[in-house]
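Two entries, shown back to back:
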Amino acid sequence: MGLRFEELDWQDTPMGEVSLRRRVEPTLGVDVYEVKLGDEYLMSSLFTVAEVELARLGLAEVAAPSADVLVGGLGLGYTAAAVLEDERVRSLTVVEAVSQVIDWQARELLPDTRGLASDRRTRLVHGDFFGLVADGAGVGAGAPERYDAILLDIDHTPRHVLHPSHASFYTESGLGALRPLLVPGGVFALWSDDPPDEQFMQVLTGVFARASAHIVSFANPLTGGESSNTVYVAKV
């Protein structure tokens, strides 16, 4: 630990002001890395259990001996790093809308996910995940045309999106545009900050052969209690 508070980066982006900061959490005496969009907290290294479980639960449904994985949203890198822990992963493509977030990995500002960008399997792409899916054009040259697993962690929930343009993705037509990017038997998994949403489950089962919602619980040192997120897993 060093300074009690340090702003590591701040950039003005099309989505607003994005900042990365490191602070000492006094209740635990540990360094915590946080990302803010304007005044809104997006993510924290204090709460990463569900981000890791997004990768593990999604990949657990992949039957192939080797896998090409697409992640929508880089964030602090915990989902992508967990993907690389699976020895079956042949390639990892991560699409991130904010170039500065990719730059944090290139500069190795985040100690827990250091080495993510330099892994030979990793391809970090600056782009709009939702736009790429809607256009059906794929990620670009050098990336797989279809994936064994697509893992998404961009919006807070299917209802609470970071930008209004994202909302159409969480419909049958929006998810229907994603399905051709998956191989037969491929898996789509999604992180959400809310409890399981029955209406969204109906959307998933309208597009995929089967779907499930997993509640991921974890200790919350700030409240002294327990918090939870949801990971949806759907299979072609």
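entry 2 starts here
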Amino acid sequence: MKLGIMQPYFLPYIGYFQLIKAVDKYVIYDDVNFIKGGWINRNKILLNGNPFMINVPMQGASSFKKINEINVGVNKKKLLVIIEQAYKKAPYYSIVFPLISEIIQYDNDNLALFISNSIIKIAKYLHIDTEILLSSEIKKENDLKAQEKVISICKTLGATEYYNAIGGQELYNKNEFAQDNIELKFLKSESIEYSQFKNEFVPWLSILDVMMFNTSEEINVLLNGYIVYS
């Protein structure tokens, strides 16, 4: 069984969804510490031809708290105004904006659940049928840290292969996974390009950008554009 585990990221880039599609089960790692300055609560979209950072407003954010111990702030509608301004002339705006509006106006203010809901909704829109789980709902050895905790989740769920993004190569040891009969693999996205209005292409923006300029069927094909390294 192929398993992927990643923290919940807000409207992440396409590589995040490639990883979800590549595995049988995907765990949203919501019970680890929040990382300031990372991608948990923010991402980049295209605004007036340039990358522009959008943020989920938060309450009580701290690197001493777990992701599922933080709440979303009150001014979420500002996000919709910015997204509308950025993409109202995009070819699939009329299809995508209602979905994004539903995601951003989700009525649960727990940050982990807010972002997890968005990931699940977008995965469904992209025709990804991978089972998505929350780490906090899995019985595991919670006192473990880093790699040992990931291996514990893999063992609990019966994984024979663990997939991570290519950036995780420095975090994990192949031999440690092999001791528990788990094969460690890394996914690297290939170069992906599509039309963005008439601008010079800006790569690796939020999945929102991909959705605004491509049909869900076209994106599902793009999701196969990756290389797996052992």
